[in-house]
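Hi V.,

You were right to ask for the full record rather than a summary. Here it is.
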Amino acid sequence: MSIDKDLQTREIYTKAVCGKGRKFSQVTNTVTPPHAPTSILGAWIINNQYEAVKSGENVEVVGTYDINIWYSYNKNTKTDVAKETISYVEVVGLSFLDKRHKPITAEVSAVATQEPNCVEASISSRGDSVIVRVEREFKVEMIAETKVCVVVSANGCNDFDDKHVEFDDTGSDDYEDLDPDLLDDDLN
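Predicted structure:
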């Protein structure tokens, strides 16, 4: 007797992760202080705020952050801090997308896996502004309703109560050579 004829399937709708993407980028921003800078004493980025918005088959991360430049001027005799708020839109493509999802149910979210960070600040060639190189990275997800197929037991859930599963532990040394650094959440 074939067990295949005893199998039944059902199609169900459920909410699931139907799209994922990640994007690393480097951008250049310009800050013009009130005084022509002589030297840069420090540069940092604070107050990063953003939200995710669905845009076709992409997710747009729309946000702002403040760039603060501590600089000297007047031939290194005085210092000041210049602050500028930068607006940005980062378009993140979905490298995985379930085409069977219901678009009307889609919800998107974003996480800054690398907050915007100043990696270099230099005085412009004209000498009146500061060029700031910024790195940032975002991971996005789209959750939506999608159809999945499940196998149904003809006898219901009680059919599995008397089942016993044995695991063969003779190969327990198989995992000793695994590098624990490879077990990173980012690989998922």
